[in-house]
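> call design_seq(struct)
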């Protein structure tokens, strides 16, 4: 008989088991949702520092206003008010390279830059070393005609307010590791290479912080979506209380300019 192994959860007539623990007696009321989420992702208990950083990232990514993902969720609810799951899914499906995906993109960029140093057991130990590695990584990215993820923000032109706070939390929690240090180095060397100052954005900082907190790179966008789920639910709850979806649709409809096909 074919078997389908899982270590996440199972149940029988009298109990539910999650990660080897009894859900009702070992977890409920004793383990927070953030702690459990970390365990589900990594299959291990977080340290207090890792948990603090993970929690800070979830808060940092929960909402950023009426972004395309929030608008998509609200308009889907307008179209299908009986389907809260459809509206939520619509918002989550919009998490891509421009919104939310930067967390993953930045983490991958930093991970790729650090990979050769890890193989050679030569990860930098001082700012000068990280600056040299950052110059190499940014120059390679530029030579390939690609953007450096984690730089700049369409709204926070003079600096993302989340970045400094997240760096301070990671430092205090003992989780300012090679990813965040390389990310900071990128911010220092970019003006020399690109000829202009671009602030380190919060989404990129979140990617670096999650990597230093032990979250696998492949799960970074999932964490961003986990955080944004709370924000989208907030938008949907507000849409039910004080709807704007119909007004948004009406504004677009009234402003539509039909052009004959070429």
């Amino acid at each position: 008989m074919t078997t389908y192994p899982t270590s996440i959860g199972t149940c029988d007539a009298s109990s539910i088991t999650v990660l080897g623990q009894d859900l009702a007696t070992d977890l409920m009321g004793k383990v927070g949702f953030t702690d459990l989420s970390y365990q589900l992702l990594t299959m291990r208990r977080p340290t207090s520092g890792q948990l603090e950083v993970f929690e800070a990232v979830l808060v940092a990514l929960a909402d950023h206003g009426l972004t395309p993902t929030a608008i998509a969720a609200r308009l889907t609810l307008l179209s299908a008010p009986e389907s809260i799951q459809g509206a939520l899914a619509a918002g989550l499906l919009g998490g891509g390279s421009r919104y939310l995906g930067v967390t993953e993109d930045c983490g991958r960029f930093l991970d790729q830059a650090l990979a050769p140093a890890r193989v050679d057991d030569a990860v930098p130990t001082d700012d000068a070393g990280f600056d040299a590695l950052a110059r190499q990584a940014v120059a390679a990215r530029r030579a390939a005609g690609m953007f450096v993820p984690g730089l700049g923000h369409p709204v926070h032109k003079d600096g993302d307010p989340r970045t400094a706070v997240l760096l301070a939390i990671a430092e205090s929690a003992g989780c300012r590791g090679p990813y965040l240090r390389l990310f900071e180095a990128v911010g220092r060397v970019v003006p020399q290479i690109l000829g202009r100052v671009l602030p380190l954005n919060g989404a990129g900082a979140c990617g670096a912080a999650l990597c230093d907190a032990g979250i696998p790179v492949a799960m970074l966008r999932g964490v961003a979506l986990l955080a944004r789920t709370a924000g989208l639910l907030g938008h949907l709850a507000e849409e039910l209380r004080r709807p704007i979806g119909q007004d948004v649709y009406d504004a677009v409809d009234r402003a539509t300019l039909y052009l004959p096909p070429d």
